[in-house]
């Protein structure tokens, strides 16, 4: 995959990720946990079939055994992300959920700072401060208005970036402790979907979803989750981390716009204003990191040319 193809792939990935909000707003009768169950079940079925076709039962079981504790902890994080995301969408607005999830890069930086001792550059501290102001603006009005359902939905959504940040920190810690081990962490996504399915099954009974709802949620399991996850892994092998993070922010813009166009749900002034601050902070942080990396690479190339 060329760099241009990787960028185009990530644009497609973010567009596919962003359809969850507008699709869930067209469900007829599926309840909170049932929404998660059907999507996770179909995702597990598709990913499991793809992995078995790719490497066979023995290969898949071998990859799970080789992953050890880190793979299972990663799977637990994936299950939290799969479950909390869909539950949050049933409790609060799409814009609230997506903007709250966008804090993942900053949570990752903070957790890595505390657990791994990573030093944070000034740009990241500035981004954290600006994003914090945006979040306070967004949700301060909800506290004053007493919209308890929105606050609960926001807290549920907050577990998604926390789980994601924990997962990436675990993987980085494992790579640091065992640099010789090249375990495949892809099965963690499958295990996460299976755990999410198992946990939400008893909470979904008795089923209330119509055939229409199951069709939409099954489509999300394939088109919105399984396929883009595989595409993102492929694009991630080519793109730099800041590039991927910056492109990933488009999911928020796509999701809010699609929901606004496809439903009667529209973001409030506070969500637009506070969310803009969050996006500005995140985009500025990642763009600065990308520019700094390009500048250093250019300087190294010039130095190399002079020496030669």
Main features:
single chain; 308 residues; mainly alpha; 12 helices; globular; disordered C terminus
3D architecture notes:
With 308 residues, this protein is mainly alpha-helical. The protein has one domain. Helices cover 83% and strands 0% of the residues. The protein is built from twelve helices and no strands. Helix 1 crosses helix 11 (250-262), helix 3 crosses helix 8 and helix 4 (94-101) runs parallel beside helix 7 (148-177). The longest helix is centred in the first third of the chain and has 58 residues, at 32-89.
Low-confidence segments: 297-308
Write down how many β-strands occur, each being a DSSP E stretch of 2 or more residues: 0
Rounded to the nearest angstrom, the radius of gyration is: 20 Å
Helicity range of the residues? over 70%
H/E element sequence: HHHHHHHHHHHH
InterPro entries: EamA_dom (IPR000620), EmrE-like (IPR037185)
Protein name: EamA-like transporter family protein
Pfam family, one: EamA
Transmembrane segments: 37-57, 69-91, 97-115, 122-139, 151-171, 187-208, 214-234, 246-263, 269-291
Any chance you could write out the topology, listing elements then pairs?
Layout: H1 3-17, H2 20-24, H3 32-89, H4 94-101, H5 104-115, H6 122-145, H7 148-177, H8 186-204, H9 211-236, H10 241-248, H11 250-262, H12 269-307
């Amino acid at each position: 995959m060329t760099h241009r193809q990787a960028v185009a792939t990530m644009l497609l990935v973010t567009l596919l990720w962003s359809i969850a909000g507008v699709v869930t707003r067209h469900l007829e009768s599926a309840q909170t946990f049932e929404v998660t169950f059907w999507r996770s079940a179909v995702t597990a079925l598709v990913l499991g079939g793809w992995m078995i076709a790719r490497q066979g039962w023995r290969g898949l079981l071998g990859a799970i055994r080789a992953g050890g504790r880190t793979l299972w902890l990663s799977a637990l994080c994936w299950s939290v992300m799969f479950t909390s995301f869909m539950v949050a969408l049933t409790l609060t607005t799409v814009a609230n959920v997506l903007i709250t999830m966008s804090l993942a890069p900053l949570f990752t930086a903070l957790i890595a700072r505390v657990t791994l001792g990573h030093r944070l550059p000034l740009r990241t501290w500035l981004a954290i401060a600006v994003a914090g102001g945006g979040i306070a603006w967004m949700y301060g009005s909800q506290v004053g208005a007493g919209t308890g359902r929105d606050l609960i939905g926001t807290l549920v959504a907050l577990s998604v970036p926390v789980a994601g940040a924990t997962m990436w920190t675990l993987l980085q810690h494992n790579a640091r402790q065992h640099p010789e081990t090249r375990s495949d962490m892809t099965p963690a996504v499958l295990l996460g979907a299976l755990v999410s399915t198992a946990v939400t099954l008893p909470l979904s009974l008795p089923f209330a979803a119509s055939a229409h709802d199951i069709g939409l949620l099954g489509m999300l399991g394939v088109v919105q989750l399984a396929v883009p996850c595989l595409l993102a892994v492929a694009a991630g092998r080519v793109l730099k981390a800041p590039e991927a993070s910056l492109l990933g922010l488009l999911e928020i813009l796509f999701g809010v716009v699609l929901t606004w166009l496809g439903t009667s749900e529209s973001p409030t002034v506070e969500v637009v204003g506070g969310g803009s601050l969050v996006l500005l902070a995140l985009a500025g942080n990642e763009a600065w990191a990308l520019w700094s990396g390009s500048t250093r690479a250019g300087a190294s190339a010039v130095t190399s040319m002079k020496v030669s």
